[in-house]
Amino acid sequence: MIDDNGEQVGILPVKEALARARAANLDLVEIAPNGQPPVCRIMDYGKYKYQQAKKAKQAKKKQHTVQMRAMRYRPKTDEHDYQFKTRHVREFLEQGSKVKVFVMFAGREMARIELGRKILDRVVEELEDVSTIGQEPKLEGRRLTMVLNPKTQSVKVKQKRTENAKDQNEPVSSQAVQEDGDG
C-alpha cells in the first residue's frame, strides 16, 4: 500500500487499508491489480479523474487534424472554370488540407477516360509546388479519383503571408488621418 503522501507503507490487510483511507477522508484505489501482492494507493479519486481528463483535453488541443476537401471536374470543364477550381485547390492545400480531386463522367463520356486523366495530370503539374500525390488516379465507378497532400513548406509560407497581411491592416493613428481638417 502507498499512502496519500506517496510513501510506501507495506503490505496491509484490506480492512486496515480501508480504515486508513477513511481516516484520511480519501479513497483506496487499486493501482496494479495483477501484482503480487496487488498495489493500492490512498488518494482522492475524483481529483485524479479530473486531472486525467484535463491532461487528455490538453493533448487533444495540441493535435493537428487534417481536413479532407474535395473538388469536382468534368471532362468538358471550360478553361475559366478549370482555372477557378484549381485556384481553390491551391488555397485548400496552402491551408494544410488534403484535397480529393475527381473527374465525373456521365453517359458516353465513360468511353473517353483519357480526357479525365489529362485533367488530373494537368492539376498535378500546376500544383506540384504545393502538393504531393497521396493517392494515384483510380477509376471508381463513374469517377476518376486522386488525393493530393499538402507540402509542409507551402503551408508554413502561407501562414507567414497571412500574418504579414494582418500586420499591414492595422488601423492608422488618428493624427495621420486628420492632416488638413477637411475630413
Provide structural commentary.
The chain has helices at 14-23, 45-62, 79-94, 113-126, 152-168, 174-177; strands spanning 27-32, 39-43, 68-73, 98-104, 131-140, 143-150. It is α+β, with helices and mostly antiparallel strands. The protein folds into two domains: 14-60, Ubiquitin-like (UB roll), CATH 3.10.20; 68-163, 2-Layer Sandwich (Translation Initiation Factor IF3). The strands form two sheets. A four-stranded mixed β-sheet has the order 3-4-6-5. Helix 3 links the parallel strand 3 and strand 4 (98-104). The protein is rod-shaped, with a radius of gyration of 31 Å. It starts with 13 loop residues before the first helix and ends in a 6-residue tail after the last helix.
